[in-house]
Amino acid sequence: MLSKLYIFVALFVCYYIFSGINEPFFLIGGVVSCLITLYVVSRMELKAEYPPFTIRVICYIGWLFKEIVLSTIDVVKNIWCRKLDFEADFAVIPTKQKTALGFTFFGNSITLTPGTVCVKIEEDKGEIIVHGLTKKAREDLRAGEMDSRVLEALK
Length: 155
Fold this sequence. Notes:
Blueprint: H1 2-19, H2 24-43, H3 55-80, E1 89-94, H4 100-112, E2 116-122, E3 127-132, H5 135-143, H6 145-153
Antiparallel strand pairs: 1-3, 2-3
């Protein structure tokens, strides 16, 4: 029951943050849509693996936000300065992740960072296939800092 409450609260908080509307009609609509979503998910009988809500996860989110800002600046600088040093290509990134949650965190972090997209996760091989706009973005992922930080955050 506690996990269902956790899911409901997480869904409603996301709904409220993204809508930002305080009118009763929309608040009630948000509650109803979250309840319907919760019902559908519970009927699927999935055993969900939830991220631990720890200080390490919060620190990781802060670090990821910084990386998103830096990557955004890099992509915008390439476009505005007409430097266009884009060398779009695919790369196979080895990862130390062992759990589905770890692969999900890592893949989503890659996709959230501008200039890189997680294309495919190959858990059995311990690899993630990534499309990167620049050679530097792919090299940064190969260096493994994001992978290590995800591993540390989910301990």
